[in-house]
Design brief:
By secondary structure, the chain is α/β, with parallel strands linked by helices. It is built from nine helices and nine strands. A hairpin with a 2-residue loop joins strand 5 and strand 6.
């Protein structure tokens, strides 16, 4: 799937992994629609890369439809990269009682339902594309987490949401095979994103040191490199790729 002159949607594209991906796509000649709740930062990034920003709650059907409509108005929509997400931490039973159900529900709605919402809407538009020379009409890439496999204490909601993304990767790929649309998922390890940078420096250093090799925090550029590889290799389909420096998370 070529990037040059093609249109891509990046959810969560105003910061972190999404911003790194949006910048990579624009640098390679792609037209990028940044879908994010952070209007101030989203508009800045869009302006810097020559893209378009739309405020988007990924769990909202209307917002998702507006993003896809805008993307298709710019040209041939061939890619969706889902990076929007939230990561609350709360124990199943804590000092103040049971896990807040609203927090759990919101995490599932944003991370899992939101991912599927954008996939279903974008793939519907892509299915109407003229196929590329490879027979492809589009590529979908979602973001899970190593927490889908080895979630830590306090990550029940987050791990469940990311486990759902992992679990639907193959069936969606099978659903969309007849339309020539590939579906992939990336499961990042410990990455240097705005969420992590709110932690004390000593905590960040300890997390980086816990990665076997390379012993550092992942960078948005690392994630973007893998996105590019997935786009360009049409045999990558229906699979989850851990991008984690061989880390396996301890309970805490």
């Amino acid at each position: 799937m070529q990037i040059q002159d093609r249109v891509f949607i990046v959810t969560g594209g105003a910061s972190g992994l999404g911003e790194g991906t949006a910048r990579m796509l624009a640098a390679n000649g792609g037209k990028v629609v940044i879908a994010d709740m952070n209007a101030e930062r989203g508009e800045v990034v869009a302006r810097e890369i020559g893209g378009v920003y739309l405020r988007c709650d990924v769990s909202s059907e209307a917002d998702g439809q507006a993003v896809v409509k805008k993307a298709t108005s710019l040209g041939k929509l061939v890619g969706l990269v889902n990076c929007a997400g939230i990561a609350p931490a709360e124990k199943t039973v804590g000092k103040n009682g049971p896990h807040n159900l609203a927090t759990y529900t919101k995490t599932i709605m944003v991370n899992l339902v939101g991912t599927f919402n954008m996939i279903r809407l974008a793939s519907d538009a892509m299915s109407k594309n003229e196929p590329e020379t490879t027979g492809e009409r589009g590529v979908l890439i979602s973001t899970a987490s190593v927490a889908a496999y080895d979630g830590q204490i306090g990550q029940a909601a987050y791990s469940a949401s990311k486990g759902g993304v992992v679990g639907m990767t193959l069936p969606i790929a099978r659903d969309l095979a007849r339309s020539g649309i590939r579906n992939m998922t990336i499961a990042p390890g410990i990455f240097g994103t705005p969420m992590l940078f709110t932690m004390p420096q000593e905590v960040q250093d300890a997390l980086a040191a816990s990665v076997p090799f390379p012993s550092r925090l992942g960078k948005p550029e690392d994630y973007a490199k893998l996105v590019k590889s997935i786009l360009e290799n049409d045999m990558l389909n229906g699979e989850v790729i851990r991008l984690d420096g061989a880390i396996r998370m301890a309970p805490k």
